[in-house]
Design goal:
Blueprint lengths: L4 H5 L22 E2 L5 E2 L1 H10 L20 H16 L2 E2 L6 E2 L1 H5 L5 H19 L4 H18 L4 H9 L1 H15 L4
Antiparallel strand pairs: 1-2, 3-4
Helix pairs in contact: 3-5, 3-8, 5-6, 5-8, 6-7, 6-8
Length: 184
């Protein structure tokens, strides 16, 4: 037995003549429960929808940064996660060769290498924002430049991207430098 569209939108009345629910929703089916298992009153729910909104003005502490105010550890974790995604996120089936989206996006001639180089440069910028000294950022920039220039060569450059892993090298350099710094 198939249901008609009317039955889907407005459930049938029971044999006693009362409706289990109405299509307009005026008759409550039960309490509204939040994700923590607490009951929410309908009037607070309606008030919450009216107050919901985004304010991106100068008084908003998150207006300057799309990621908000992150701690030092959160920034380091974000850099490491992006570097792993770029360089070692996947394994080539049947082998032990790891590659990331850097190698995949790099298959797009010129544009792909520009995109991945820009992301790598952003990681270097984040390292500098964490306080990395000039000599460390210069070495990181050298890794990115080598990866970007050699990556422009069709196919051989993509193989180099997979094997060189400039972003993981840069994270390793940053991590070694951070480990030598005194804890505050």
């Amino acid at each position: 037995m198939t249901m008609s569209d009317d039955d889907i939108l407005a459930p049938r009345r029971s044999r006693s003549g009362s409706s289990r629910a109405t299509a307009s929703g005026s008759e409550a089916r039960g309490p509204i429960i939040d994700q923590d298992g607490r009951e929410i009153r309908p009037e607070t729910l309606e008030q919450g929808f009216r107050e919901f909104g985004f304010e991106l003005g100068k008084d908003n502490p998150f207006a300057g940064s799309p990621f908000g105010n992150l701690t030092r550890e959160q920034r380091i974790a974000r850099i490491e996660a992006i570097a792993k995604l770029l360089d070692v996120a996947f394994i080539l089936p049947g082998t032990n060769i790891r590659y990331g989206i850097d190698g995949l996006i790099g298959l797009i001639p010129v544009v792909g290498d520009i995109i991945t180089t820009a992301i790598s440069l952003w990681l270097v910028r984040e390292a500098r924002a964490l306080g990395a000294p000039w000599y460390l950022t210069a070495r990181m920039l050298g890794n990115v430049a080598l990866d970007g220039v050699v990556g422009m060569v069709p196919f051989a450059g993509d193989a180099f991207d997979v094997m060189f892993r400039a972003n993981m090298r840069n994270v390793r350099l940053l991590r070694r430098w951070l480990d030598k710094q005194p804890r505050i």
